[in-house]
Amino acid sequence: MERRNFLKTAIFGSLAAGFSLKNSLLSAQVKTSTAGDEYDLVAVMGGEPDVMYAKAIETLGGIKKFVKPGQKVVVKPNIGWNKTIELAGNTNPILVGAIIKDCLKAGAKEVTVFDHTCNEWKDCYKNSGIEAAVKAAGGKIAYAHEERYYREVKIQGAKRLTKTKVHEAILDCDVWINVPVLKHHGGAKITIALKNYMGIVWDRRFFHANDLQQCIADSALLSKKPVLNIVDAYRIVTDNGPQNHTLADVQTPKALFMSADIVAVDAAALKFFNQFINKPLAEVGHIKLANEMKIGTSDIDKLRVKRIMINEQ
Amino acid sequence: MYSLLRRLRVVLSIGIFFLIFFCFINVYHFAGSWWTMPLGWQLIPAILAGSFAVVIVLLLLTLLFGRIYCSTLCPLGTYQDIVRRVTNLFKSKKARRMKYHKPHNIARYAILVISVMATIMGSSILLLWLDPYSNFGRVAANLFNPVIIFFGNNLSYIIDIIPVHGYHSFTLSAIIAAIIFFIIITVFSALRGRLYCNLICPVGSFLGLISKYSLFKLQINAERCTHCTICSKECKAQCIDVGKQEIDNSRCVQCYDCTVSCKLGAIGYKQCYKIKQPTQPMNTASERRSFLGALGGIIAAGTAGKLLPPLRNVSENNKAICPPGSEGLERFKAHCTSCHACIANCPSHVLRPAITEYGIDGFTMPVLDFDRSYCNYECTRCSEICPNDAICTITQAEKAVIQIGEVKFLPKRCIVVSDETDCGACDEHCPTHAIKMIDFRNGLKLPKVNRELCIGCGGCEYICPASPKAIFVVANTVHEAAVLYQEKEQKEIKVEGFGF
């Protein structure tokens, strides 16, 4: 009796296992055929910037999904400060270089990189390591230190920032990729992808004088939106940002977040940041406002998130 | 041999002229190196900077061969030669001819003595307006620099590797002052050659005095000379008296034009220490006259000295912020002759010519203007280029603890208080952590300043969106020491997951 029962369960079990295996194989095939469509956001941890980027972009279906052959591409990192790579004031140059190379491989006509820097622009471009990385990867550096490089645009649906001068590289490109670095920020509370918009406009002082948080959210309503937002969290600034002066404020968690949804990627990076310093979403006005204005969603629990842990060694 | 010497003089002077000129039209701010060296060879800057080696070399050179400095090293001298050369193209042969003029000894030595007295008493005001190098610098920086930028900017439309350069570093009053001097010097040199050098220029008068005792002097060989006056017609210093067959070595700028023009080879260097001057009586007369002039000058300087101190009074203006390395207002004003090398090379354009910030005697001296920009924390460019050491050379580490002014914060004006919105622009720009955002209300953060850490770079004032500014820098009359931010120990935080 017992033996019979055992055999029965064994047979059913193996059958069931076989079926489930087949199912999983089938679903795996489905996955590859519609690559990248089932995830809204990718979070990677534990690798070098270029490795994490490669993993993340692969999960989202490859750069070809976002950049078409012959297109003019802009990669917009944060190059705001005259800081060394170790102090994490700017986006990691290895990441910027990897993105440019990938875009060019996908057939991009040209890849331009710029930022309206806060410190003296030549020093920022040079000491961030980004100028060298861009040139090595075959991209172009654009000037952004004078008003002449900016053109005025109207922003539909904005509450405070109804018009502003935006850099011509953004206005004239086919697609742009937003590549911020994750940092603590004394004024805006945190600086990630939304805050990175302040580097494509000329008059930042207007933002500060007219409700900073609202203006940051408004700026993301600009009709030409980034096709991808890639948050560099290889090194992050946890305090005294955006311009920390000592390594005491820098952590190296080696992470990267990628999404087409700018609000989601900010919310995800912020949750990650909260493991270091308490900074609840409710405190960060611009992410909250951007969510309310339906620029994207900060409710990442409702999104399909792929988490990748890279084990080095 | 003299035609070779002349050619060497022309090549050297043009080379040095363009190197110095380039220092002032360096609109893309290439960091200085060997090509800024001729700035350090200028006499007045070298004296003010206390570069004894340079001063001694220049004096020895003059004691040996006369005013070689004036024709070779001085950029304003070369400029005058260029003007004369160019205007001669448009003149009739007759109009090109120069003729001998008597020296204006009383005037030139009086100017020299007054300038020296004023400098000794700690005011560089006369040198500022008379020094040839500084005047040349102001003309180049205020008149030619904008022209270069204008062309560069238009070229940048065609060639996109040329960056646009802002026009924000110009001050009208300094431009007007430069235009006035530019017209004077151009007219002087077009009509009378080196009249400026032999009448107004304190460097010319000083070196002229010394070259009276030069070992080698250009002299006319009376036996060969036929009084043809060709040399005199060529002499830009108007110092060859053919009637007496004499060259006034105190005015001769050693250009060698006469030696080349003389078909008879009658003009050449002579060793002069053993030769008893045959025309001694006349020389003593002129000597006496210049001595009287000098005495008059001293008296005039004495009276002027009594008038000067009120001018020198350190202005109470709290916007009189002088660059880091200048140590304080009084020292700065005593050393600066306003050549604008620092202004032309300031990458952030925070330096501009002063209008009234430093008082009347500090007009056109470089001042930091935080409405335009702020002083880069990492930059020490002005201190490196200043040939006067009015801005002493400092390292970045030294600059990090020099407080040129002190920050003041008025919360009432702050956007965070008045509008109840986030701002923090000042904190963002502060390079020393002198500003910290602290909890205010409704989740807002308000800046709090720590004046000990502040170096007065003006980053906060520049970026403050409030009008009038809620945060601003007030000048330190004497620069003070700032405290360096104490580094915390780094504690590595390990996280296992993404937190979501």
Question: How would you classify the helix and strand content of chain A by structural class?
Answer: alpha/beta
The CATH topology of the largest domain in chain A corresponds to: Rossmann fold
Query: Whole-number average pLDDT of chain A?
Result: 90
| CATH hierarchy class name of the largest domain in chain A | Alpha Beta
Largest pleated sheet of chain A: 11 strands, mixed
Q: Given the C-alpha coordinates, what overall shape of chain A results?
A: globular
CATH architecture descriptor text of the largest domain in chain A: 3-Layer(aba) Sandwich
Count of domains of chain A: 2
Strand order in the sheet with the most strands of chain B:
1-4
Q: What is the number of beta strands of chain A? A: 13
Low-pLDDT segments of chain B: 278-282, 308-316
Please give the largest β-sheet of chain B.
Answer: 2 strands, antiparallel
Low-confidence stretches of chain A: 16-33
Question: Pair with the most extensive interface?
Answer: A-B, 56 and 47 residues
Secondary structure: helix percent of chain B: 40-55%
CATH superfamily of the largest domain in chain A: LarA, N-terminal domain
How much strand content do the residues of chain A show?
A: 15-25%
Question: Radius of gyration of chain B over alpha carbons?
Answer: 28 Å
Order of helices and strands of chain A: HEHEHEHHEEEHEEEHHEEEHHE
Residue-averaged pLDDT of chain B:
89
The tally of helices of chain A reads 10
Summarize the structure in words.
The complex is a heterodimer of chains A (313) and B (500). Chain A has 313 residues and is of the alpha/beta class. Chain A has 2 domains: 1-33; 36-309, Rossmann fold. Chain A has helices at 2-33, 49-59, 93-105, 121-127, 130-137, 168-172, 204-209, 212-219, 262-273, 285-292, and strands at 41-45, 72-77, 110-113, 140-141, 150-154, 163-167, 175-179, 181-185, 189-191, 228-237, 250-251, 255-259, 305-309. In chain A, the strands form 2 sheets. In chain A, strands 1, 2, 3, 4, 7, 8, 9, 10, 11, 12 and 13 form an 11-stranded mixed sheet that branches. In chain A, strands 5-6 form a two-stranded antiparallel ribbon. In chain A, a hairpin with an 8-residue loop joins strand 5 (150-154) and strand 6 (163-167). In chain A, helix 3 runs parallel beside helix 5 (130-137). The longest helix of chain A has 32 residues, at 2-33. Chain A is globular. By secondary structure, chain B is mostly helical. In chain B, 47% of the residues lie in helices and 10% in strands. Chain B has 23 helices and 10 strands. The model of chain B is unreliable at 278-282 and 308-316 (pLDDT under 50). Chains A and B meet through helix 7, helix 8, strand 11 and helix 9 of A and helix 22 and strand 8 of B.
